[in-house]
Each structure stands twice: as structure tokens, then as C-alpha cells.
Amino acid sequence: MTNQTSFPATGAPQPGLSADTRAMMIFEANKKQNLVAYLLWFLFGYFGAHNFYLGRTGVAIAQLILTLTIIGIVITFFWHIVDTFLIPGWVRRQNNVLATQLGAGPLCF
Prior knowledge:
This protein is an all-alpha fold. Helices cover 65% and strands 0% of the residues.
């Protein structure tokens, strides 16, 4: 006997779950968090780890390459400081993109 409300890997809708409930569960499982972004920024920020986490792959690669060069480390130092103030907006934007993709529309936090 199988449970009808289980979540198969196929992502097929299950009886008993509304589309809104399913979308909210997916959102909660995949949303980005400020704490994680700041921890990555603090521990591995010079290498762009927080940018990788927030889906900003191109920026993260540029930051990583600059960090590996002698002259680029000076640029990355200031870049790292500026990122401190921009992380909350990037997290909010990434979560809004996810909510829009799931059909919930932009969220206001």
C-alpha cells in the first residue's frame, strides 16, 4: 500500500495537495537565506562562494579569477566589502525569481 501524498522524484501532482500548497513547499525547500549567504561571504567570500550560492555564477567566476592574481586581490578586497551591503537584496531577488517561477508572483518581505 502506498501513501498518496508522498512526493515522487518525477514531481507529478499528488492527490490531496493543491497547486498552491505544492508550490509553497517547493519554495520553502529551495529559497535562499541571508544567514547562509553571509556565512559563505565571511568564510569564502574572496573566492565568490556567496555569489555561487545566489546564482550569480559569472560574477563568482570573475571574483575567483581576480582573487587568484596579485593585483586582483586588491580589487577583490573592496568588492568583498561592498558585497556586504548588497547580499540582502540579492537574496530577496533570488527568492522573488523562484516564487515567480512557481506561479506565486513576487513576494514582499
